[in-house]
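Working notes for the structural subgroup meeting. M.R. asked for a predicted model of this chain before we commit to crystallization trials. I am recording the input and output together here so anyone reviewing the notebook later can reproduce the run.

Input as submitted:
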Amino acid sequence: MGKTYLLVNPIKREFVDPMRLNGGFQWDDVLTDPFCVLVLKRLIADPPRGTTEIDGRWTGDAVILPAGWGGEDNLHDRASLEFTDISYLALARLCDKDKVFNNILNQAMETDSFFVELCNALREFAPGLLLDKPFTTVLGVDWSRRYKKVCAQRY
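Returned structure, recorded in token form:
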């Protein structure tokens, strides 16, 4: 697979895995994928009032995009083993905005791995959205059957 990248906040000991956002794993993917960029913006921007727990969460902190090759002692590997993965939280909070949610749903229709990541994120942080009309309309009422089938094939 080669090098992979994470968005890491060493101060808060948290990271976001761009692959969970369907953003790929290469340097260019991380910096150009719309979901990765939106998550990063929301994490580091000064939060407006009435925002979610990801808005401004990393404001003022260092954010590093370390590369990982596997098997080496580096920040990427340490973060993935020792830090808190907030990827699902970030993905679930992206779904708070209808336009973004619709884009996420459309990508989940096309990519089985992202479909599973989205279902996992919503099950953990926004279970009500799994029953909402946009989710069931785009992904179908029997989305759970697809989820189980894809998981059985992957694991």
